[in-house]
Amino acid sequence: MSKDRPNYAFIDSQNLNLGVQSLGWKLDYKKFRLYLKNKYDVQQVYLFIGKSAGNQGLYVNLQHAGYNLVFKPTVAYFENGKKTMKGNVDAELVLYASAKLYEHYNKAVIVSGDGDFYCLAEYLDENKKLLRIITPNRRYSKLLSNYRRYITSLELLQSRLEYHKGEKRNKKPTHAVGRNLRQSRQTSRSMRSVETLGKPRHGDSHINIAKITQKVNKWGRK
User: Fold this and answer.
1) What is the pTM for the complete model shown?
2) DSSP for 64-130?
3) E strand or H helix at 9, and its extent?
4) Are 32 and 109 in contact (CB under 8 A)?
5) How many CB atoms are located within 10 Å of the residue 110 CB?
């Protein structure tokens, strides 16, 4: 294993989306990509996602944000009378991280709280190639509990990674007063913070995250 090789991230998109949405917020994928780069020096991000007709715009936006998409055909099924599309990407993610791309990266960041990736975490840990496991929320699988020292929950980073519609278009006049002025200052700070996402000394150091994570790991589940 060479430290000259870049770090890679492997994302289970379905687990990520459902986990974040269960908490009532939406992830900003541009911010998340920047966070992975700044925090973990991730140079390549592989996002495993089901492919469905009509989602071409989504796929293009994700690619423009810096994600390498790996598609899995989706299967339609009905749940409670509602049509749902499902594309399980577990096998593809394990294949890419442990075989196809294994020799190309130094260490891996796995983004999922699914216990199906226990074998991958174990394999990467044994070979000193596991850098981080990022779970969408605190209720990750108990199967991953042996790897708590690697786990960070996006729930702890909501204020920095949440998507806000029209955020970049929110331009308040400099002469705004009262609440408008406060909003303007908050927006300005938010925009500046995007560029420092994950960088040292900006509120999410390994020490700070570790302290918080230790308090909430008891919420892990199967």
Assistant:
1) 0.75
2) HTT-EEEEEE-EEEEETTEEEEE---HHHHHHIIIIISGGG-S-EEEE---GGGHHHHHHHHHTT-E
3) strand 7-12
4) no
5) 28
**Which tokens go with 54?**
């009509």
**Spans of the chain, pLDDT less than 50:** 169-185, 187-188, 191, 206-207, 209-213, 215-222
Which two structure tokens, joined as six digits, stand for 145?
A: 């509990």
Residue type, 79: E
Distance CA 132, CA 160 (A): 19
For residue 143, give both structure tokens: 């199967």
**What are 120's two structure tokens?**
């991958």
Distance CA(51)–CA(48), nearest Å, equals 10
Cα–Cα distances (Å) from 80 to 17, 32, 77, 83, 84, in that order, read 21, 33, 10, 8, 10
Give residue-wise pLDDT tens across range 21-31.
999 999 999 99
Kindly tell me the burial class for residue 172, based on how many C-beta atoms sit within 10 Å of its own C-beta (0-12, 13-18, 19 or more): middle
